[in-house]
Description:
Keywords: Cell projection, Cilium, Cytoplasm, Cytoskeleton, Flagellum
Order of helices and strands: HHHHHHH
Subcellular location: Cytoplasm, Cytoskeleton, Flagellum axoneme
Family: Belongs to the DRC10 family.
Structural class: mainly alpha
Low-confidence stretches: none
Radius of gyration: 30 Å
Largest sheet: none
Function: Component of the nexin-dynein regulatory complex (N-DRC), a key regulator of ciliary/flagellar motility which maintains the alignment and integrity of the distal axoneme and regulates microtubule sliding in motile axonemes.
Protein name: Dynein regulatory complex protein 10
Strand content: under 5%
Amino acid sequence: xxxxxxxxxxxxxxxxxxxxxxxxxxxxxxxxxxxxxxxxxxxxxxxxxxxxxxxxxxxxxxxxxxxxxxxxxxxxxxxxxxxxxxxxxxxxxxxxxxxxxxxxxxxxxxxxxxxxxxxxxxxxxxxxxxxxxxxxxxxxxxxxxxxxxxxxxxxxxxxxxxxxxxxxxxxxxxxxxxxxxxxxxxxx
Length: 188
């Protein structure tokens, strides 16, 4: 995570949104049947206690809604012009549950570490992990660009101040030389 943040409020908002997106995508990368099965097994009881019944219910519902979405989209339902009211309701339920699941997962300390124990390294969603890495790279690039803009503006201001001070010094020197010249003319 970037440590130096630009002072520009809009830049900070952009970076905060990207941080939140990465966090939610990380949470969602652990929502799988394998993880749910591990949680429901003998080894998962301690973690289930940490997560709580509401989060577990939301977790199971997310998998059910995702399966429903995949089945309907495979049948030519979603993404086609034949969208029905039932399909819209399913999509709305999935979106609502996804937000609720992320909110509940965020409230649990170390939830990612707890869930990581139930997910094989090979079964992690490669596309999601690659997307997270790409998003992190984009965030770093955005930070550099935003920081560079701020640094460039600061550099321009410093250069302008330098020229102003040199102009003031030159004006003062000119006035002194004009006085000296006037004094010399008076003496001669």
